[in-house]
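RECORD TYPE: inverse folding
INPUT: structure tokens
STRUCTURE:
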């Protein structure tokens, strides 16, 4: 995680160093296309490897990929700007941030796996996160070279871009997790078929990113692309809610649209952030954008999983299936184990109940995406710097 986070932030900061903002949309479009393809190709390949090879290959596949990335970086990253002074590294801020965010994400993950919000373990993690992150903010205000300069949060445009990318990642990553689960549980398909079900989303993300990147470079404005994606996202999620997984063409169309919506917002939000800060802050602004992107995905998966478990508790699924499974958490296993344990005649009733449950879940997801739309509407329509 540390290695991947470093590579993502530094590679984007390199683009910020050597490409003017007006041209940057094109390059960030390429970057977001690769990021989007990898984000969806990972689950697709993972489903196939788990089904036909072994779950261990989900980890082993990273060895040749890592060697390839090392070779490309060693061969091509030459002639980059070299700092003229030795920076002061904020070690204390780094430690406080890691502890605070780890506690926050662990607490959210525990909730997503079925633990109660009021359990001592979850409350302890959230309490630790609040205290440590408060200390982090206090320290950053006094540090000579802070890890995360607090003045960036006074920048309205950067803050709105971070909100946009948070909610976009919230939707995109939670859909990547929930849609295969919905397809498997409602249709009874295997992991390989569920992985293929993600392909329209995988195709839509790079299409949206490439189009938005090119359009941003031509017009010099990023808000129209962000706003278009933010409008398209709730419409596409609502369409998914009303199209059953068995309707492959219709469901795939709405997944394609949601991918295009997400792809249009990822590169443009980053370009907007980099354009709104000073050149010396581009590195930290880029890494903060990636932080909000990662937080959005983690929070989205955890909250949607927790909501799914809550909806299952309140539905007849808890009575038709083995209710003890639901109390144990792990929503993916709840559905599949509950369906497999049910007698043949009861399975159709369970699948119909699950279809309604996932529809309610997608309604909530649609409502959350409206927050991203509000941030996009409030964003100023600034012109990018440079030619």
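DESIGNED SEQUENCE:
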């Amino acid at each position: 995680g540390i290695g991947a986070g470093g590579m993502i932030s530094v590679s984007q900061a390199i683009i910020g160093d050597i490409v003017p903002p007006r041209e940057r949309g094109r390059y960030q479009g390429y970057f977001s296309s690769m990021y989007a393809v990898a984000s969806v190709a990972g689950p697709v390949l993972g489903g196939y490897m788990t089904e036909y090879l072994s779950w261990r290959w989900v980890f082993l596949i990273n060895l040749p990929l890592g060697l390839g990335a090392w070779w490309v970086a060693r061969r091509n990253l030459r002639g980059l700007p070299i700092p003229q002074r030795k920076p002061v590294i904020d070690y204390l801020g780094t430690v406080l941030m890691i502890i605070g965010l780890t506690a926050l994400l662990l607490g959210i993950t525990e909730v997503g796996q079925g633990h109660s919000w009021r359990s001592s373990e979850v409350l302890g993690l959230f309490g630790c996160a609040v205290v440590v992150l408060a200390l982090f903010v206090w320290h950053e205000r006094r540090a000579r070279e802070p890890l995360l300069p607090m003045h960036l949060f006074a920048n309205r445009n950067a803050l709105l871009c971070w909100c946009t990318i948070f909610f976009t990642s919230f939707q995109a990553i939670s859909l990547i997790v929930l849609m295969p689960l919905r397809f498997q549980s409602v249709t009874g398909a295997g992991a390989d078929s569920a992985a293929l079900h993600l392909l329209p989303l995988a195709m839509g993300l790079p299409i949206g990113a490439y189009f938005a990147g090119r359009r941003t470079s031509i017009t010099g404005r990023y808000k129209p692309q962000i706003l278009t994606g933010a409008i398209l996202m709730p419409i596409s999620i609502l369409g998914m809610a009303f199209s059953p997984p068995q309707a492959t063409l219709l469901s795939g169309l709405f997944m394609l649209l949601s991918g295009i919506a997400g792809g249009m917002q990822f590169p443009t939000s980053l370009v907007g952030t980099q354009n709104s800060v000073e050149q010396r802050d581009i590195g930290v602004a880029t890494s903060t954008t990636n932080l909000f992107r990662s937080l959005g995905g983690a929070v989205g998966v955890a909250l949607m999983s927790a909501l799914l478990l809550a909806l299952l508790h309140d539905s007849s699924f808890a009575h038709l299936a083995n209710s003890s499974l639901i109390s144990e958490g792990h929503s993916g296993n709840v559905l599949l184990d509950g369906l497999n344990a049910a007698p043949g005649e009861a399975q159709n009733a369970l699948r119909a109940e699950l279809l309604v449950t996932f529809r309610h879940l997608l309604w909530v997801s649609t409502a959350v995406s409206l927050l991203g739309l509000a941030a996009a509407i409030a964003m100023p329509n600034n012109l990018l710097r440079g030619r």
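NOTES: Residues 344-378 form the longest helix (35 residues).
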